[in-house]
Write a structure and sequence with these properties.
- By secondary structure, this protein is α/β, with parallel strands linked by helices.
- The longest helix is centred in the N-terminal third of the chain and has 23 residues, at about 40-60.
- A hairpin with a 2-residue loop joins strand 3 and strand 4.
- It contains 6 helices and 7 strands.
- It has one domain (about 1-190): Maf protein (Alpha-Beta Complex), CATH 3.90.950.
- Helix 3 crosses helix 4.
Length: about 190
């Protein structure tokens, strides 16, 4: 099995490396816009776009092997019907953190896996509750630079861990890759393991 991660996310690379999985990275050139209202459907649709973009690129190059597995994922944060992507700047990060502090939000991560001519999508939802944060805490955390490149403007595995009051579901989903969901998809659908 030759695993290709269709993602530029350092967190996804770190998770796979921690699992001892050998893989290569191929960043997807895909349109990530989506107007679906359901968070799970939305991240699945974007993951599928990424997965198929990499598959098509490999096919065009003539490098798509029969044992190639392509994995794509997308993560977003949602609360009260609003979708929070990656903050554009420090002001945007502070606004996101101000919105999330003291409340529970949902982290949705989609998966798209292509193998042997077949593509399967799925998603994972995890609830995360932030403790109340002061303006000084929000400003201090936003100034670390850690919120950038992360859905919802925080990294649960980083400095933001001190503000997480509780989590319901898959921790790795919040980091950016639902490991158990991926493992089950590969094993149960395709008969392969990490």
């Amino acid at each position: 099995m030759k695993l290709i991660l269709a993602s530029a996310s350092p967190r996804r690379r770190e998770i796979l490396a921690t699992l001892g999985v050998e893989f290569t990275v191929r960043v997807a050139d895909a349109d990530e816009t989506c107007d679906l209202a359901d968070p799970g459907e939305r991240v699945e649709a974007i993951s599928l776009k990424k997965c198929l973009a990499v598959r098509d690129a490999l096919e065009a190059e003539g490098t798509l092997d029969h044992d190639t597995v392509i994995l794509a994922s997308d993560t977003l944060v949602t609360a009260d019907g609003l979708f929070l992507g990656k903050p554009a700047d420090e002001d945007d990060a502070r606004a996101m953190l101000s919105f999330l502090q003291g409340r529970t939000h949902t982290v949705a991560s989609g998966l798209a896996v292509w193998y042997g001519g077949r593509t399967v999508t799925s998603h994972e939802l995890t609830g995360v509750t932030f403790a109340p944060m002061t303006e000084a805490e929000i400003t201090s955390y936003a100034a670390t630079g850690e919120p950038f490149g992360k859905a919802g403007g925080y990294a649960i595995q980083g400095h933001a861990a001190r503000y997480v009051k509780g989590i319901e579901g898959d921790y790795f989903n919040v980091v950016g890759l639902p490991v158990r969901r991926l493992y089950e998809t590969l094993r149960l659908v395709f008969g392969i393991t990490l």
